[in-house]
Write a structure and sequence with these properties.
By secondary structure, the chain is mainly beta. The chain is about 10% helix and about 45% strand. The strands form three sheets. Strands 1, 2, 13, 14, 15, 16, 17 and 18 form an eight-stranded antiparallel beta sheet that branches. Strands 3, 4, 5, 6, 7, 10, 11 and 12 form an eight-stranded mixed beta sheet that branches. A two-stranded antiparallel sheet has the order 8-9. The termini are far apart.
């Protein structure tokens, strides 16, 4: 007996970066990498990205780390670790590991979107790390979808840590490419998640999907899972299950990321 079914598989830590069909700005790939970091703890690994908040409240972090909510949930204990980089290109970069407080007792310190697998948490970054967060205006809004600034077929950049692999000992992300595979994208209330055509692995969850619009990066999604086909076969002496990835990442749409960040600012 043989049966098959499709199923989503949540992959800890992926940031998808979507790019428009126009030529990628010369510095966009580097900006994508500098805004992205690996988050680890308890043998788990994910990807996430930083966003700088304008006009933050006194006593509240002006920078947030955005990732898949399951990437944080799967790290047990009160703290995780952010894998960052310090130094510069001329003299060389080196690894800089920074603690990320996740819980106070049983209380989670991050905020999740109510219906999708994404989370926002405040961070305090050391002065010596090489991080350039995205600006809040660089997170896609519903108007970008309505105006078809973001559309099916666009090329994408994906800075991520597939299978917990880093680009080098300094801890830089690996930059992947893909394309936006879903149509239509609106209304976002009915299309909260989209497919991205790229070769992805566990460890990617939380990566941003970044498009180039007017020579600037625009985060249009966040990868949190992959689509796979599950084959089951039964013989007299054996039951076998095989999962085959389809090369499709599943990403939360940008406007929902923006909504969650706005909710974090308002709390």
């Amino acid at each position: 007996m043989f049966s098959s079914k499709l199923s989503p598989l949540r992959l800890c830590g992926v940031v998808l970066t979507i790019v428009t069909n126009q030529a990628i700005g010369a510095d966009i790939p580097e900006l994508a990498l500098r805004a992205t970091a690996r988050v680890t703890g308890g043998g788990r690994s994910g990807t996430g990205f930083f966003v700088k908040l304008p006009d933050s409240s006194p006593g509240k972090s002006s920078t947030v780390f955005v990732t898949a909510s399951h990437a944080l949930e799967e790290i047990t204990g009160p703290k995780g670790t952010l894998i960052l980089r310090a130094g510069n290109e001329a003299d060389g970069y080196h690894r800089r590991e920074v603690e990320l407080p996740l819980r106070t007792g049983e209380e989670r310190l991050w905020m999740t979107h109510p219906t999708t697998d994404m989370a926002v948490i405040g961070v305090t970054l050391p002065d010596d790390v090489d991080v350039q967060p995205f600006e809040l205006r660089q997170i896609a809004e519903a108007k970008h979808l309505a105006e078809k600034v973001i559309r099916v077929g666009q090329d994408v950049l994906i800075p991520c840590f597939p299978a917990q692999v880093e680009a080098n000992p300094a801890g830089w992300p690996i930059l992947r490419k893909g394309s936006l595979a879903t149509h239509p994208l609106t209304p976002v209330e009915r299309v909260p998640t989209i497919f991205v055509d790229y070769s992805h692995f566990g460890g990617d969850s939380g990566a941003p999907v970044i498009a180039t619009v007017n020579d600037e990066p625009l985060v249009v999604g966040l990868v949190f899972a992959m689509l796979r086909i599950t084959d089951k076969s039964t013989t007299t002496f054996e039951d076998r299950t095989i999962h085959m990835p389809l090369g499709l990442g599943i990403a939360v749409q940008g406007p929902l990321i923006r909504q969650t960040i706005d909710a974090w600012k308002a709390k």
